[in-house]
Records
---
Amino acid sequence: MYYTDETVVFLNGEFVKAKEANVGLYNQTMHYGNGVFEGIRSYDTPDGTRIFKAKEHYDRLHYSAQMMHIDLKYSSEELENITYQLLEKNGMKDAYIRPLVYLGENMSLTPTNDVYVVIMAWEWGKYLGDNMLKVMLSSYQRPNPKACHVQAKVVGHYTNSILATTEAKQKGFNEALLTDINGFVAEGPGANFFYEKDGKLFTAPLGNILSGITRATVFEIARELDVEVEERFFKPEEIYTADAAFFCGTAAEVIGIAQFNEYKFPLNWEDSNSYMVQRKYKRRVAFNEYKNVYL
Ligand code: PMP
């Protein structure tokens, strides 16, 4: 599903066939989850293939690496160039791109200078699908920001996400919504959360969540649409008074939520400001983001 016999990946300075690349059994990332990664998308635009906000993603990869004491030798610009080459070699335009920085052999609880950079790409539909979602309040909370760097995209953090998504699916929902350690709404397992009330958008402030690049894009778009956004701590119960809600993330893009627990959002999705944000996001990524003429 992710690669064929012909798929090429970038691995430590070389483009190699995915099926021929291998990973050591003793690497630290596999045992302890100390590795960092990104999830990026490229789009087939009228200007050719464009990676959406490549710099922001690679800068965040650097931040994540730094937080985990991992020495990432490539600059954001180099990584962006490599990614364009990778897409070209694979003949891909609309792609999901997965850079992963992983560590070599080390069974101690200290990082190593044996740092590997792999970049993979595959064609991937929207992560949460195209249909409005049924979301449940998770029994899991997001990790304690005093236990790890929640704004870093660290491999090991995603065990929390897997638990939450699995629980939601087992209970017949499409996805989970997690609270922070204080019981305030935080985010989804792989996406940020917004709700809409009387035309205004509300979302959790930074501190207990990943600083989503799509979240930042939603802020930009809302400003352009004259839609107010407020970052504020709120309890899950407040969502029962909302008119509409959505998740946003690179893989999921902007996807509407039909239902939270048993509560059905009353506003027709197409009549919400959230829907306007979704439409504008679609256009922004499908056309080059700097071509404001299209927006
Ligand atoms: N929160 C979490 C936990 C995530 O994994 C992601 C996906 N990277 C997001 C939010 C959304 O981030 P972005 O918009 O940068 O993809």
Note: Residues 224 and 295 are 10 Å apart (CA to CA).
---
Amino acid sequence: MIMIGPPGAGKGTQAERVAAERGVPKISTGDILREAIHQGNPLGLRAKSTVEQGELVRDDLIIGIVKERLNRPDARQGFVLDGFPRTVVQAKALDEILAGRDPLIIVEIVVPHDELVRRMTSRRICGECGATAGPADVKCRLCGGELVLRSDDGNSEVMDRRLQVYAQQTEPIVNYYRKRSTFRSIDGTQTPDRVADAMAAAIDSALETTRSSS
Ligand code: AMP
């Protein structure tokens, strides 16, 4: 399945929960890029300034990463993608990658602009390993490192730019998917537990659609 929603909508948090509940990997392109930047490997060096400016990394680069990841054995039984696709070109590439596999489930998380800005200004990651922290975390749950603001969140210009990039480049994918029987839209302004309930119901009803049509 994929999750669509603006930065700050809660995709990462919800993707993590769904992946744990359903026993499938969570694949976050933002996490992959942050890890690469943290390590300073070739991918990280190429992506660093783009990510820090709130722009999108080139389609061919990110599509290559996702293609390789989705073809690994642990993703054969399903996966939760977080942060991909972000453009119509990526959405079309994903359809090609998944040709012959079970239908994609698409969940859109809807949150109004003001609430997104509020959330983005308080979102933290681990300064040591780059993992995303939950709102109540004091230290990193993975490595015990200190938590810091995300470098692309702390700055209001970059935040505005990311919301603009979402509206211009990513929102059009909602129309690309909307007519599919496995498309669902949920209200992301509720508490994380409520959103998780809505998410589970959306996934189950979409799965039901795929079973009745096969
Ligand atoms: P995220 O953690 O999903 O908000 O992603 C953080 C940043 O990584 C984004 O602002 C982009 O610069 C980059 N990024 C993540 N996923 C993609 C993608 N699918 N296409 C292009 N850039 C991406």
Note: The first helix runs from residue 11 to 22.
